[in-house]
Specification:
This protein is mainly α and about 300 residues long. About 70% of the residues lie in helices and about 5% in strands. The chain has helices spanning about 5-35, 40-55, 65-85, 95-115, 145-165, 165-175, 180-185, 190-215, 225-235, 240-260, 270-285, and strands at about 120, 135, 140, 215. The strands form two sheets. Strands 1-4 form a two-stranded antiparallel sheet. It has a two-stranded antiparallel ribbon with strand order 2-3. The protein is globular. It starts with a helix and ends in a 14-residue tail after the last helix.
Length: about 300
Amino acid sequence: MSGSMFFQHLFNAITLGSLYGLIAIGYTMVYGILRLINFAHGEVFMLGAYFIFFAITLLNLPWGLAAVVAVAASSFCGILVDKIAYKPLRNAPRISALISAIGVSFFIQNLSIVIFTGLPRPVMRPDWLVKVMKFGEIRILPLAIVVPAVTLFLVLGLLWIVYRTKPGLAMRAISKDIETTRLMGVSVNRIIAFTFGIGSALAAASGIMWALRYPQIHPFMGLFPGLKAFIAAVFGGIGSIQGAVIGGMFLGIIEIMAVAFFPTLSGYRDAFAFVLLIIILLMKPTGLMGEKLEDKI
């Protein structure tokens, strides 16, 4: 493999890893607070892509405004999912919330087929994002730079919220002890809804950039990215924001570079993520940056 081809594949790997990382943050935030895997998260990712599609085609909004509207609408959907499917089960056994999460995932998928139809739809992309840039023998799309840059900006903004604001302090307190935090006067349900809103907004941003990178959307587009982002969250240490980003990057690099070096394995590309999940669960179940949880007796 030539040096130029290597760097082209590397840019693609970083772009894909950035998208996985953004989705994985939503999983890890909800798990960190509720110890719940929100399996409907991949469907929020899908809704973000559909919202920007209709904002542009039906409302004729410019790209920037359409993206803001799509992220806000997806954030509202995430909060709605928490209020309808998870809030009534706060004190129920965890298996009940898990079953509810799976049910919500299937419900959103099938409702999307009814509303949006199952036909794939093309996504209009701004010309400047698809104009090939040349750096010597290296040819890349601006998306390969824009996606990691936007991801970095969003992750830094999230870290600022979590570690420098009162809602972030409340989120960290709830993740340690939800009942004690409630006794201290914190509106736990409001903070949990806020967490779902932020995680859903990041998933929508990832869905929008995914639609730009792979310009075709359909109701099941969130299935595999959602599963792989969950694996990335487990690999990085579910409950750790930084770990989710690292896990997403690592998974994206493995997927792209393995196929680049071994083209005959391209048919097994999706299997790499699940092999990685098995390995990490066997060797380090808490992930790279996960903390070992102690059960209170």
